[in-house]
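Hi R.,

Here's the chain you asked about this morning:
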Amino acid sequence: MRYTYIVEKAADGSFSAYVPDLPGCTTCGDSIDEVKVNMKEAIALYIDSLRDHGESVPPPSITADVVEAA
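And here is the predicted structure, written out as tokens:
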């Protein structure tokens, strides 16, 4: 499954990210590359936890794109 995640830059220059389809699934890092690695692990752990507790795994429902604006 491919989940969309949102990355935000903090005032101190670090980054945080969350998955809208997986409430509470968050991570952070010093770079976007670090956040990407951490997010992959966070999603896997989140899904494992849902399964361990007999809960259903929500399917991805959000897609995103980027546009350049003047």
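One quick note: The helical segments are 32-52.

Cheers,
M.
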